[in-house]
Design goal:
- This protein is α/β, with parallel strands linked by helices.
- Helices cover 30% and strands 25% of the residues.
- The longest helix is centred in the N-terminal third of the chain and has 18 residues.
- The N and C termini lie far apart (40 Å).
């Protein structure tokens, strides 16, 4: 454990339990070892996987059975991440390339699958304090915990 001096954490959006668990584990280790911690969004992490970037494209991160997290990228910049029904993501894929983290959907909907690999994003940033180590939710916490 004493050899750990840096963490790079993908802090979301994504599956609630996975993102929350990763943040909690790094927080616990941070309390003991005080390593440098770098955060990167799931979109920035996946965007770093794209070798040749089209002028306009989207990234779809699988969420629930009906909807996922979606963000568009263009020469004007990137849109705000949104929760999007899969059918709407399929419609967007008819207009411009859409990349996804889910192999099943890449095959079914003709999206480009981004094979997971160790890639560091230039958008990773170092946290200054433990309070900055937070999950990146697209939904508000009220929406997440509404019964």
């Amino acid at each position: 454990m004493s050899l750990i001096n840096e963490f790079y954490l993908v802090n979301g959006p994504g599956f609630f339990t996975g993102i929350r668990s990763g943040v909690m584990i790094v927080k616990a280790i941070y309390q003991i070892l005080k390593p440098r911690v770098f955060l990167v969004s799931s979109f920035a992490y996946l965007d770093a996987h794209i070798q040749t970037k089209p002028e306009h494209y989207g990234i779809l991160i699988v969420g629930s059975q009906r909807e996922g997290y979606f963000q568009e990228f263009s020469p004007q910049g990137q849109s705000k991440a949104v929760i999007l029904p899969y059918e709407k993501a399929r419609e967007k894929a008819r207009s411009f390339p859409v990349f996804t983290d889910q192999e099943k959907y890449s095959i079914e909907w003709n999206l480009t699958y981004l094979q997971p690999k160790a890639v560091l994003s230039s958008q990773a940033y170092e946290i200054a304090d433990l309070k900055d180590l937070t999950p990146n939710y697209v939904r508000s916490e009220d929406e997440l915990f509404r019964s």
